[in-house]
């Protein structure tokens, strides 16, 4: 920050402080052991470190440490987690607008099959139960092709739509 400083500012500590804030925002109740001894919640640790960096930078207590670079990393970590999804959505919409309307085929919503009626489901379940009882008593070999088809359709419906 000082234009006439003979000491260059290098390092990754600002990035580490950004990760600290990002972690605290995503997992605020996670317990972290400060100096491997003191259990503290991640959110409280980020606030504590932010206060220490702010007051140390404001008083100039340690001139060889770029305290405001740490604060910049913390602000960047906050903004990244807080606004990333909004920025990503805006960038996607800008990209689509730049591509033009004729470049991509229109997206049609998937058609849903009509829901079966409750009476049909009860009849089908009775048939499935009968087939399962037959399998239990006589084995899979005793099923007819029609019964196998019923079970296959029932199984596919239970799995849901494949993607």
How is this structure best described in words?
The protein is mainly alpha-helical and 163 residues long. The protein is elongated and about 90 Å long. It is 62% helix and 5% strand. It is built from five helices and two strands; from the N terminus they run αββαααα. It has two domains: 13-99, no CATH class; 118-158, no CATH class. The protein has helices spanning 13-26, 42-59, 67-99, 118-138, 145-159, and strands at 31-34, 38-41.
Brief descriptors of the model:
2 domains, 163 residues, mainly alpha
Topology:
Blueprint: H1 13-26, E1 31-34, E2 38-41, H2 42-59, H3 67-99, H4 118-138, H5 145-159
Antiparallel strand pairs: 1-2
Helix pairs in contact: 1-2, 1-3, 2-3
Kindly summarize this structure in a few lines.
The protein is mostly helical and 163 residues long. It has five helices and two strands, in the order αββαααα.
Described by the principal axes of the CA atoms, the overall outline is elongated
Spatially, the strands of the biggest sheet line up as 1-2
Number of H/I helices: 5
Question: How many domains in all?
Answer: 2
Strand content: under 5%
Give the overall pLDDT as a whole number.
82
């Amino acid at each position: 920050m000082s234009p006439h400083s003979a000491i260059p500012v290098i390092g990754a500590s600002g990035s580490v402080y950004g990760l600290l804030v990002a972690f605290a925002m995503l997992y605020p109740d996670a317990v972290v052991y400060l100096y491997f001894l003191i259990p503290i919640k991640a959110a409280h640790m980020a606030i504590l470190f932010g206060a220490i960096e702010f007051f140390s930078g404001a008083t100039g207590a340690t001139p060889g440490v770029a305290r405001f670079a740490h604060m910049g990393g913390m602000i960047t970590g906050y903004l990244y987690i807080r606004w990333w999804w909004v920025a990503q959505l805006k960038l996607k919409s800008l990209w689509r607008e730049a591509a033009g309307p004729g470049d991509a085929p229109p997206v049609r919503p998937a058609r849903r099959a009509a829901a079966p009626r409750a009476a049909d489901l009860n009849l089908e379940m009775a048939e499935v139960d009968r087939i399962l009882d037959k399998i239990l008593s006589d084995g899979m070999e005793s099923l007819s092709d029609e019964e196998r088809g019923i079970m296959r359709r029932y199984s596919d419906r239970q799995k849901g739509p494949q993607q």
